[in-house]
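Sharing a chain and its predicted structure for anyone who wants a worked example. Both blocks are below, sequence first, tokens second.
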Amino acid sequence: MGGVYMKRIAQVVVLGGLYLCSLASLGPIASAAQQTATPTRTPDVIYVPTPPEVVKAMLDTAGVTAKDLVYDLGCGDGRIVIEAAKSYGARGVGIDIDPERIKEATANAAKAGVADRVKFMQADLFETDLRPATVVTLYLLESLNLKLQPKLVNELKPGTRIVSHAFSMGPWTPDQELTVEGRRVYLWKIPPKTAGGTGTGGVQR
């Protein structure tokens, strides 16, 4: 994973908190944030596309089906949620800070014929309601995964799957880990609520 990690680190802009995008109303997920906002901070990472074979592996590892609502945090050109809708029949929510990426993703969804199943919007990641998601996909950094982890653990329903390309979540042991074309893919499942942080690397629900 060293090469992927260093490539990702080299493209990081460390300027503070992480801003990404939230989605407009999409069927039963109307509780998600619906306002488009102008970013007030620079994102912590620069978009690097996930290769198609890794996208497929992430969705396969999460066991995505037509019943799922996939949230991609840092969606870039929208390829993960578009693939989830096109090949798996799922619905998708793309979240990204860059308005150009949002325009690109929206256009790509239309070209793929899945614009009725996916939405893309801007918002603050840490203020975005993630509760509707049944699958969450990530390609951030381990430090950002760790910062995001308490929100994931506390907002997502038990059984929700989280898949990360290349980066782990520190002490939270993944339920599955694999290598695809030299790239690591990690899967976690949100455990039932407990009195402590059992199964979540110490983060309490």
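Comments welcome. The CA atoms of residues 126 and 148 lie 7 Å apart.
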